[in-house]
Design a protein that fits this description.
The chain is an alpha/beta fold. The chain has 9 helices and 7 strands; from the N terminus they run αααααβαβαββαβαββ. The protein has a single domain, classed as Vaccinia Virus protein VP39 (Rossmann fold, 3-Layer(aba) Sandwich). Helix 5 packs parallel to helix 6 and helix 8 packs across helix 9. The radius of gyration is 16 Å and the shape is globular.
Length: 222
């Protein structure tokens, strides 16, 4: 679930900018504290990210080629990613986590049979094993160490030969390709190249399968 300044409390972000940056406990609980507004989210994200629908379609397409019976989504948001991926894997069970109860409430409207859990990316992942783990516009909320830790935990959640599809905002190689507004408080993107390296360290064979300026979709296979 991408944040930027989309559908969230600007007052809370302002206070965080003046918080003690050395307070890891504060930053780890930011996502749960932000007041997300699902009523605004989709409308505003399509303004903030003009390629949003193309990006989401690319995430879904990156899940093709495996037989997925059980799927875990990290950062369910309003259910946009799940809707697209489930259309390609209609028989799969769906488990999802998100740090916002408001966003989960909206997602439950379109995913009534899914197991949707209130949880942060830093928390223990749901018990697998899963055939596929997918995440769109959520992992950039973790710093570099948090991403590396998550990638190792995703490996543990997957079956042998399972797949992880990661779509997110990234730091582009060319500064002029930085198109999406980043607050650098809870938006902490990294370069796609760095994330490929960290995924490889975790045991994945990872490649970028789609990219547009500061958006990328990575397919990581065990």
């Amino acid at each position: 679930m991408v944040s930027m300044l989309i559908g969230r409390s600007r007052e809370r972000l302002h206070s965080l900018r003046h918080a003690n940056a050395a307070s890891c406990g504060t930053l780890l609980h930011v996502m749960a504290d932000i007041e997300w507004n699902p009523e605004l989210y989709l409308r505003e994200i399509r303004i903030e990210i003009p390629r949003f629908d193309d990006f989401q379609d690319a995430v879904a397409e990156a899940t093709l080629g495996i037989e997925a019976h059980s799927i875990l989504e990290l950062g369910v948001g309003t259910g946009e990613t799940a809707r697209r991926v489930r259309a390609l894997h209609p028989g799969a069970s769906w488990t999802g986590v998100d740090a916002s109860e408001a966003m989960l409430g909206r997602a439950r409207e379109s995913l009534p049979d899914a197991d949707l859990l209130l949880s942060r990316l830093e928390d223990s992942l749901p018990t697998g094993p899963f055939d596929l783990v997918v995440s769109a516009l959520a992992v950039h909320h973790l710093d570099a160490g948090g991403k590396r830790d998550l990638f190792h935990r995703v490996v543990q959640a997957l079956r042998p030969e399972g797949r992880f599809v990661l779509g997110d905002v990234v730091v582009p190689e060319r500064p002029e390709d930085a198109e999406i507004e980043i607050d650098w408080v809870i938006d902490l993107p990294d370069r796609a190249a760095d994330q490929l390296k960290w995924l490889a360290e975790a045991g994945f064979d990872a490649t970028v399968v789609w990219s547009r300026r500061d958006l990328a979709v990575i397919r990581a296979q065990l």
